[in-house]
Structures are given as C-alpha cells and as structure tokens.
Amino acid sequence: GFETSLFGRLVMLKFDKHLLNIQYRMNPCISLFPNAQFYERKILDGSNVLSPSYNKDYTCLPFGSYTFINVTDGREDKEGKGNSHRNMVEVAVVLHLIHTIFKSWKNRNQGLSIGVVSPYKAQVDAIKSRLGEKYDTCDGFHVRVKSTDGFQGEEDDIIILSTVRSNGRGVVGFLADNRRTNVALTRARHCLWIVGNAHTLYKSGTEWTELVADAERRKCVFSATNDATICKLVLQVKQELDELDDLLNADSAVFSNTRWKVILSDEFRKSFTKLKSPQLRKEVLQKLIRLGDGWRTTVKNLDIPGVSHLAKVYKVWNLYLVWSTDVEKTEGRYFQIIRVWDLLSQQNVARTVQRLENLFSMYTDDYLDHCRRVQTQGKLEVPMVWHIEHDIIRYNKDYKVVAHEEHDVVDTSYAMENSKVSESFLLMKFYSLSSGMAKHLLTATDGSEIDIPFELTDEEQIIIQFPLTSFILGRSGTGKTTVLTMKLIQKEQQSLIASQGLHLDGDDLSGLDHKNIMPLKDGRESFVKQVFITVSPKLCSAIKNHISGLKRFGTGDVSDQSSILHMHDIMDDLEEFTEIPDNFCDLPHEHYPLTITYRKFLMMLDGTCRTSFFDAFYGEMKTSFERGHSRSHAVQTFIELKEVTYEKFATFYWPRFNADLTKKFAASTVFTEIISHIKGAYQTSRPYVGKLGREDYVMLSDKRFSSLNNEKRDRIYDIFLEYESMKCTAKEFDLSDFVNSLHSSLVSEGYHGDMVDFVYIDEVQDLTMTQIALLKYVCMNIKEGFLFAGDTAQTIARGIDFRFEDIRSLFYTAFLAETEASNQGLKHGKKVHLSDMFQLSQNFRTHCGILRMAQSIMSLLYFFFPSSVDKLNPETGLVYGEAPVLLESDNDENAIMTIFGESKTTHGNLRGFGAEQVILVRDDAAKKQIIDLVGKQALVLTIVECKGLEFQDVLLYNFFGSSPLRNKWRVLYGYMKDKNIIAHSEEISHPGFDRSKHYLLCSELKQLYVAITRTRQRLWICENTENYCRPMFDYWKKLCLVEVRLLDSSLIQAMQTGSSSDDWRIRGTKVGDLYLFSLESQF
Prior knowledge:
The chain is α/β, with parallel strands linked by helices. The protein folds into five domains: 25-246, P-loop containing nucleotide triphosphate hydrolases (Rossmann fold, 3-Layer(aba) Sandwich); 249-396 and 428-439, no CATH class; 466-610 and 754-821, Rossmann fold, CATH 3.40.50; 646-732; 848-1082, P-loop containing nucleotide triphosphate hydrolases (Rossmann fold), CATH 3.40.50. 38% of the residues lie in helices and 14% in strands. The chain contains 40 helices and 30 strands. The strands form seven sheets. The protein has a six-stranded parallel sheet with strand order 7-6-8-9-3-10. Strands 11, 12, 13, 14, 17 and 18 form a six-stranded mixed sheet that branches. The protein is elongated, with a radius of gyration of 36 Å. Residues 707-796 form the UvrD-like helicase ATP-binding domain. InterPro entries: DNA2/NAM7-like_C (IPR041679), P-loop_NTPase (IPR027417), SF1_C_Upf1 (IPR047187), TRANK1 (IPR039904), UvrD-like_ATP-bd (IPR014016).
C-alpha cells in the first residue's frame, strides 16, 4: 500500500543500491554522533571538511563546533489549546546566541547563515515573533527559523537546535522520532549548538539519551548557569514569565497593587483577542501592568505631527498601544485613570490618534488640565486625586436633550461625534483591568463576546447603588437589562463576602458597596436567593448565560464553559428548564441565582401548591410526572395543546362568536381587554374571584382615558362570556385562568415554598397586573427586594396593556398595603413610601438619525394613546448618523427580488447580507415567503422574534403593506395638520381619529417602534406598494427624518456587506442563545 515509499519498493524488488558514503557538509565534530547512531559508522568525512581551513573562521565563537547547552530553568508549555509545545526560556537563550554570533560577525567581511531549528511549531513561532525583523537589513548576515521538517534538504553555517521539552518525567513527544532527530542534527556545516534540558532528554530512553551521554563523554555539555550573561538572561526571563503567569492565579497581587486604574476599550479587547501569539498577549499585558504601576517611557515610539500628545503611543513588538490619561469620579472625589483605546498596526495609528484628537477637542479646558497634570514618586508617575465639591465638566457643550414643546422631536444639536456607531469612542464599552480580565484575555480564543463586566455610567451606578425596591423605565438600547444583571451580581458578591469573607481580587463587578453588606443567616440558608424573570425564552437564555458568566468571573473562574445553546434547547419554553424542579420547596443552592421565564415561574408556583391547576385538564396523565418535578415532554405538549393563545383565539374562537357582537371589533382588541382588564386586573377581594364583574368592567370607561365607551365594553363583556363558555366546553384554558387559579390557591392555602430575597423582572410590560401580583407570595422583602424594568413603548405581546404608573399603583395595593408591617404602619399614621422611578435616557445602541425617527413614533403614541404609553424625556444620543432610507424601485418587481436577485446575477455569487444584517417582517407567513425568495442570503426575523436584539443594519420589509390598518393610516394626516407639520389648507382626505375604530394603531405603532430600534447603524424601509405607507412616509419626509433612494445596482452593492466565517460563527452563537429553532436552516 501507500505505507511503502517508491524508494522502498525498489529495494524490495532487489534493484542494485549504492551507498553514498562520503559527506561533504558537516565539521567532523558534528557528524561524529549521527554517523555512529544512525549510519553504523559507514559515512566518511570528505577531504574538504577534514581540511584545517574548513572551520578556521568559526573557532572564535564561544561554543565551538559542537555543544549541548544545558538549560534546566526552562518550562515547557502548550500554546493555547493546541498540542504544540514551546519553552520561552530557551527562546531567550536562542536569541542571545544569535546576538552573540552577530557581534562576532560584524568584524568579518564574509557572509554567514544561521538556521534555528525546533521540532515544535509553537517554538518556531515564538522565536520568529521575538526575533522580528532585527537582522533583515544586515547584508551578509542571514537568520532563518524553521521546523525540523521544514529544514529537510537545507543547510546553514550554524545551526541552533531548540529541543523545547523540559520535565522531570523524561517525556519528549515526537522528539523520539529518529528520522526527525537525524535531520535536525545533520543540517549544520560548521557549528551545531543544541539547546535543551539534559535531564529530560537523558531520561527519555530514546536516541537523545545516547546524545546526552555522548556529549558528556566528549565534554561538550555546557551548563547555562555557568555563563554569567546567560544566567542573568534566564533569571530575567524566568522572573518575567512567573509574573505574567501570576495573572492566571486567582490570588494574584499583580493588579491589586497597581497605582493606576486601567480601563480597556472594547476595540482593544477585540484587537487583543485577534493576537495569535500567546507570548505577544503576555507582552501586551505586561506593558499594561507597568503602565498601571506608573512606568512611563522616555523613548518616542512614533512621531505623529499636529497632535496635543494627550494620546500616548507605546510600541509593543510591531504593534502600538494607544492610551491616554483620563479623569473619573467615585464617591465624591476625582482621580486620574488610564484609558486604553486600541492596539494597532503602525498604518492605523495616525487615523485613530486623529479621531482621539477630535474627541479631546470636545473636552473643556478645565477637564484637559486635570488630565494633563503629572505627579511623580521617584521615577514613577502616580495618579492625582482631587477632593472637590464642584464637578469637573468633561464636555464643552451640554448634550442633555430637551424635547421641543411642539412635536417632542429630538434635538440633535447635543450630538458631538460624527462617526459610525461601531467606531464611536463615545459609545464604546470599557472594561476595568483586573486579574479576572487578564485571565479572560489570555485564554480567549476568538473575538466573540465574553462575559466581562464593563464600566457603568453614573446614571447606571446610581440605580445599582439605590438600596430600595425601584422601577426602571427606558427606551430601547438604554441599558435596562445591564442594570438588572449588574445589580443581581452585586448582591451575589455581597452574599459571598458576608458568608465567606472572600477577597475579590480586584474583580468588583458593579461598584460593590462594601459598607452595605447585608448580614446573612447561619447554616444552609447563608446564601442569597435571587430570581431573574423575563417572558421571552430567547432573551431568558441569553441573560441566563450572561449572569452565569459574570458570576464565574466574579469568583475567579474563567474556565472555557461555552454559553452556546443548541437550537433544540430553546424550542420549548418549559423544556429549557428541565433541570430545575417545578416547585420552590428546598430548591438546591446551585440553582441560584435562578434565571427563568415567567411561564417556568408559574409552573414552579403550581408545583408548590397542594393541588395542581392542571389536574382538571390531564386527569389520566397525572402519573406521567412526579409531583413537583419538571413535567414530562408529553405533559408539556398536552398543556400547550389545551392553552388558548391569541393565535388560537383569533383562528378558532373569534369566527364562532356572535357576529353582531364582534362587528367593528378587531380580535386583538377584544383579546387584550379580556386578558389585561377583565381577567388581568388585580383585585384585593377575598375570596379571590379572578375576573371583573360586568359593572366594574364597564365603569373603566369613566376611570381611565379609555378608547372604549360603555356600550362597546358591554358588548366585549358579552363576547367574554361566550368565550368562557366555549373554552369550558373544549376543556381548554388561557394563561389568565392559570394565574388566577394560583392566586386563589395561595390566598386560601398560603405559600409553603422557599422565600426569595430579591426578584428582578425584565420586560415587565409583557405581564398583566395579576401576573405581576403573584411575585408578592415568593418574596416578602417588599422594601428592598424588587427591581422592575421595562418600556411600555415596546408592549407588543398580545393581550397586554398597561403603563408603569399602573404597576406602581399595584405595588402599593398588592405588595405594600397588604403586608403586615405596612398595615401596622398605616394604623399608626405612617406614610407608606412608594418606590422610586428611574429613567434611563442615554442610548448606547444607535445614532441620532434612528433616535429621531423613533421619537417621531413616540410622538404619535403620546398624541393618540396617552394612556397606553409612559411619556419619557426623549433619548439622548452622542453620535450623529445617516438618516433612515426609504427605498423606491423604478419597476414593479418585488424589492426583495431586486436586491437579492441583483446579487446573484450582477456579481456572479451569493454575496447577500452579512452576519450583522437582518430583514424584518411582520409575521411567520411573511417570513416564510421571504426565506423562499432569499434562501440563505440573509437572516430573516419577525418583529416579535427580534425584540431585545440588535443588528448593524436592518431592512424593514412591507410593514405597512401587510398592516391590518390598511387605509386607516391616513388618520396621521389629521395629526400632521393639528401640529402644523402640513398646512391646514392642503386638500388631503383623511378620517377623523376614533379610538374605537383606530384601536389597532396603538399596537401597530409599537411594533414599528420595536422594528426601527433594532438597528445600530443603517435602516432601510421598503414597501411593495405605496397604497398604505404614504401617510407615514409623508410624515417622515415633512420632518426631514428620511432620505429617499432609488433601488439601483450601486445602492444594492453598498447595502450588502460581506462577513467572514468568524463573523457568522459569532452570530451563530447569538442565534443559539436567542433565536428560534426555525432559524437553524438559515445557517
């Protein structure tokens, strides 16, 4: 077979063979051992190598023609996760030997070639990296570094062989390969210097045992420790390596003892993780440690004309570290910090420094003066600290936005930076350098997102440090989820310190307030029980993994535990949590902090009650699960079949209702009224009824700014009664039935599960009042234990309708007023404190062009449906950006076919959209249609699926064309006339606004808001027809919020961005965490 070479076959076939037994390459001192070991002494030395003149020019070199240099202080390690070994002490010795030869060669007038050989690729790479281009310009002096295999058939004047292996067991790996050893030992003409650990090689029991013994007999072994220069070098490298390796130890004092706080930008993190050489990574970290300790270079690394020199540029190998001194405020004092911006190649430095100069030009003179001040201790710079009462203002102009009185349109005069969102210095995340951060960086294998806590804004810090129950409002991209997760992690760390007294090694994740450490009980309950709840299974999966990563980071564990979920893991809400029991009774410690969906929360409450709500529905299936344990897949499927969702309501129930009752109503309107108000309004009555009576429901017309009058509410209540009757007959239930049953059981039986210390609810706008009220049973820490976050502008869940003021009122009636402590307070005339409401207004996702369009939607919601959305100050943005684009086509072809057909025909390949681009459509039917057209050229999502996600570019397709409002969008013209956006004299026909007729407009505007705010950079909106989109398009055009572009080949090419396989892999990670199973086919 192929195991036998052609040469071997000739020998087997008895062809005559002739041994070439004279070698003309090696000095006899070099050929002696391989001749005896591999060729049975049959090789003779040629007359040329035996001549005294052959080696006379090399006698002055310190280690002669043949030497084994014994380096015992080296340490073998593997590069990253690969199998290739390296030995950095040997690398340093090899570089020293080359330098020694170079100094000797400079006095000679002849050429010299040096070959550095090692059997390990990692060692070759390390030597190449450290060697760089140092000798490339030295004519006549040639150095090349190759693997043993790469040197086969090659020769050089001097060969330096690095054997790498250094261990006490004599393990030498494929150094034991005789053929490789033979090649390595026979490449030199005049000198062969072998660098290695004699003890390791001798113990191996291979040819190397004989080589070391032979060198000993010939007195050719030289101990590195006997040479003062090499000894000093080895010790220096050893000390450096030991210090860097300390970065991987949880008890490292390297960072906790630094004088300066060092923060790293996300761009630096990305650049760092792209470094292939682990040693280069360590070199960069070493430079950061030295900067943090106060070291400053006096060498000018790079001359960049026309800059203020606030930005510093330090060279690390062939790269440049760009950093500056900045000022930070903490606990009433200002102090200097080091802000690291990026790690760049030389050609990219000038552009980045110029961009930084533009940023610094926005700073006030006072702020710059504080940044530039220098304080020294000996030869080191130390950070200055100021205890001053007044603020040091950073920016020249106040960028806090004030809404226009007239239209609530965002004023973009506050935006200060004109750059892409992805390149913005003002929106960039920063991470504090700590032992945990260093550990992450050293072990990171790609540029994907890693769970490292980033620096928080002052606004976020205030909320996290606030000790009481609170409500957080914020539009899309303002950091609500960040605040919740960091608050949760803060409590975890406080619990850790209180129970174990742990030192956090500098990895304080969220501004931990050590003065406010809560006392914990002794015994098994001496840990904090926290629950994080959100409705979306996709978002819950992402948050669960993020919290897990942050928790590991905080305890010093940065092991490579992938957070990527398989697609089938998120197919089913309940299946994802099968490892968590369906009850709150004695839940094991390891399940906390508990991150679950609201549906899983309900199942756990149900499992804690004496009688399950589902007993009446699956009767004979009771035996298919153990009480309190996670339900089997069969039972979960059965439950899903029996549940009435909006889709089932609209498809199977709605057509069967009395047509006289449903006339002029939309199914979504009635479903919302039933779920949110008739069955979703919380009641304090005892026993718990679970629904509003007809009279109470009809009276809502008078109690709130209602879109429905008494007569319409009366008809809706009749529909509700029909619905309940049909549902009972079909033995089905809706989520409100489940929730109300739990309330009834908990009121009559009481709650017998574990009490939770803290509850965090994200996207709270997706829950009804009765659903939120269930939380009071599991957490009695009313004063401090709840954190609610959401945005009523993003309420696109079917059947949900409430404002944050409603939930604050609920908290007063269902949480505070019902607790015994609060009741006692009321008896004594004490005022019950309503929890604080915080608003997050700084947008970190996108630019002002998108924010202005989003605010235009909010203005419509405020005008038409003031009771359905909380009015907040417009978001602030720091980055200018291009206006969203309305795409127009010059033919009747489907726009999707124009875009993606063009990519096929014009460019000859399937370029399509990149990993950070998405097509958004209204529903699953539209999604399937588009996927059939574009195939795998683009990611396609519905608006519901994309909630909570973000992309660089978004194409919103046919939103208005598929809208159930159809011509009713023309009601917007009335608003435009009312606000003088268009002249009253313009003859445009439009209906007058009627809340009952235009009720769907509210949900349509909220869906549009969600879709618009998914993009970070570019937004394109295209429609197949102008019939329904014209009113909104005219609105945007009048406000100068959009640009109209013709969909031609040049625009199509500009829209499409290529992505690398790494980009798609990283996006695939996010898909695994966040998207539906049906997306798998697109990757």
